Amino acid sequence: MTHQFSSYVAIGDSFTEGVGDELPDGRVRGWADQVALGLALASPNPVGYANLAIRGRLLAPIAGEQLQAAVALRPQLMSINGGGNDIMRPKVSLESITDQLLAAVDTATASGIHVLLLSGGNPSKHLPFGSVMATRGDRLAQEVMSRASKNNVTFVNNWADQELTKLQYWSVDKLHLNARGHARVASNVLSALEIPVPDFAADEGPADDARPRTAAYWREYVLPWIGRRLTGRSSGDNREPKSATLQPVEIAGR
């Protein structure tokens, strides 16, 4: 199948950056990289790809500076995801998050860009205080779906993917998808775009006995996360996008 997208830019937070899908050399891959590969494999022409996502980002800078930089690249396809870090804050306005997301979509589509608007996977079954996050995530996905324009927009509701809620798709921190989870999201996205899904090679994820027990989990993951929130810091402080300009997608063997 020949598709119409010869350039793709992704914006967002750790979900879109690819955290949890670490390569042997220390770089992260993630679903957006795999979607770019799927686009390139399905196209007779080179496909350019940029990923402006940075871990830890709240929605405001995603829908602000990241969006502006992405539009300036003039891609044919842009993926927008954000709000996951916002809904984990003690207080949050879901109406404001929805408004920001839809305003970002409108800005992109007004520039002639096809928007891939997608929600992240739902990790709430495995997290402390996960019920609060689940309720907020459900409401946010429903609001976005009910209000989003259908014109030049493809919506992928990974939050509602029940298979993706299983622990086997999540990293040891239980907050970020592992390689297998990112591969499933990439499959969801390419299927929604009606583009053939490559055979993504992904490991099976950490074994249950490799995951830290309750006390160790809180010490290694939960308490540092709380500490960053209390001090206004982010895991993405001083980080640059992994790919700020459109670069040709490399295909092995070509």
Order of helices and strands: EHHEHEHEHEHHE
Proportion of beta-strand residues:
5-15%
Number of helices: 7
Query: Taking all residues together, what is the mean pLDDT?
Result: 87
- Find the count of extended strands (DSSP E, 2+ residues): 6
Largest sheet: 6 strands, mixed
Basic shape: globular
Low-confidence regions: none
Q: How far do the termini sit from each other?
A: 19 Å
The spatial strand order of the largest sheet comes to 5-4-3-1-2-6
Coarse structural class:
alpha/beta
Radius of gyration: 17 Å
- Helix fraction? 25-40%
What attributes does this structure have?
alpha/beta, 254 residues, globular
Short description:
By secondary structure, the protein is α/β, with parallel strands linked by helices. 38% of the residues lie in helices and 12% in strands.
Report on this model:
This protein has 254 residues and is α/β, with parallel strands linked by helices. 42% of the residues are buried. Strands 5-4-3-1-2-6 form a six-stranded mixed β-sheet, sandwiched between helices. The radius of gyration is 17 Å and the shape is globular. The model has no long low-confidence stretch (mean pLDDT 87). α4 crosses α5. The chain has seven helices and six strands, in the order βααβαβαβαβααβ.
